[in-house]
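Researcher: Let's try something more involved. This one mixes different molecule types, so please make sure each is placed in the same coordinate frame as the others.
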Amino acid sequence: MLLRTEKLKKTFGGLVAVNEIDFSIEAGRIAAIIGPNGSGKTTFFNVVSGILPATGGKIFFNDQDVTSRKAHEMTALGMARTFQNIRLFANLTARDNIILGRYSQTRSGLLDGLFNTPRLQRERRESEAKAAELLTFVGLEKVADHMAKNLPYGAQRRLEIARALASEPKLLLLDEPAAGMNPKEVDALLQLIMKMKELGITILLIEHQMRLVMNIAEQVTVFDHGVKLAEGLPADVRCNPAVVEAYIGSEGQRFAKRKRH
Amino acid sequence: MAWRQWLQGWRGAFLLSAFVLGVSFIDSVLNRPEYLFPPYFKHVLLISLIYSIAALSLNFVSGYIGQTSLGHAAFFGLGAFTSALLTQELHWPFWPAFLAAGVVSAVVGLPLGAPAVRVRGPFLVVVTYGCGEVFKYIALNLEVTGGPAGLPGLVTPSLFVSFNDIGATGKEAFIVLALVLALFLAFFSRRIENSRVGQAFAAIREDEIAASAMGVNVTYYKLLAFVLSAFFAGLAGSLLAHYLSFVSPDMLSSAESIMMLTMVVVGGARSIHGCFLGAFLLTILPEALRMIKDTIGLPFDPWLVLFGLILILMMRVRPQGILGADTVFRR
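Model: All components are placed in one shared frame. Result:
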């Protein structure tokens, strides 16, 4: 198991956002987390990626206990992520955003900077080459020198993925990558995710677009009110009565049943 | 703006050095009874250079990591008092006391940078302002710092001969030392901008959470910015103290902090040339206005009125500062 959580819990005051979740994902797979708004999906991501500390339970990454690791340590261990409300470095160029994504792969420090050492120069060359490669990979090579904030929405999403890839992750967490995309952009995203899988990257995504989830996910987990409601193959989860109820209520469930017959 | 591009890079540094060295050496070489450049002119030049160092050091915090600090004069004054006390009480020579001023400021800057790890924006402004005031009142009330009167009669630095014996007016050696330090700091800042450390600073300035998701240790780099900032401010303070041969608690006042921040903001945050421009502008303008006031017999000093107008105009017309990058500041 590449990532595993044991009874992972996160509370904000009296609110239990993530309630004793057991979750695991095997290396090389694509898994999706779905659930209604406010079901704790993004909080789960934030705790797993170290941005928020866990209230209880344990997180294992590569069979190593990483429960109390901070976000920057998780990145160094090989976990990268994107954000639901895009968090690019808005006033930097697309290329510089990706070069910053390489931060965990480079080592030079203050003195390297002062003396402009060969190490710094080598790392700079490598980062620039990698940035060019990744810009091509996500199809943004033409806007490399545009400021991130001036890019169209779909391009910003792809740039954020490219920036996450720059850290050469084993596990990539995508928080609603298709939010706000038109069908054409969703298709491009789908292909991009498949390409990343071929590179051997394990992908865990939160998504509301069922078309995307049902097409690519090999494992779907459903969250509701902070607890795990269901887990399994996409087709099985879709027919699970509890899941249907969580999404559209018991009325909808009756409707769904009637439709199936 | 063409003139801006023309000044970028080494050309600006070269022009500044040529001007400063010219001013400081011509009188010494000419060796005439009347000075070509009056000592007052050189005084203003030196003060401008010292404030350039202060502005460049503040730029680490308020420019690179984008955190507004209103307590920078505390580090400046701390350096001044440290080297004053070391030379006066412990009879240290100038050079080790000068370095110690930077080190003491940096060591004190570390815990003062700690709140910046947790708070930002207006909250950090209040915290840094408070810290600065605490330092001022400590200096005002301690016996060893001379209370409100400060410490007069500091030693003049000497390398092999006394600084007073070098040059025609006794200011030339100081000017050269301040120039060397300012240019080194400018060079250091430029190198940092182009290094991985500069990338980390930029990431923190833009978005702290995204920065940490890239693997940037936000705590470490924020403290690093504060420590670097305090170190160079301490050196600048020491230089000013020994030049004036006097330190007073006024050096730690919030008015000084505000002035330093204004230099960075007016010149252009994150712009090295901007720090020089801001420091020179805000040192020379009040002096020039005072002369105008004396000549035409104004009943009041127009400086503070104009200072306010400049700030309002800047925020309206060019919030990123005269030489700031042409990206609009997030407000």
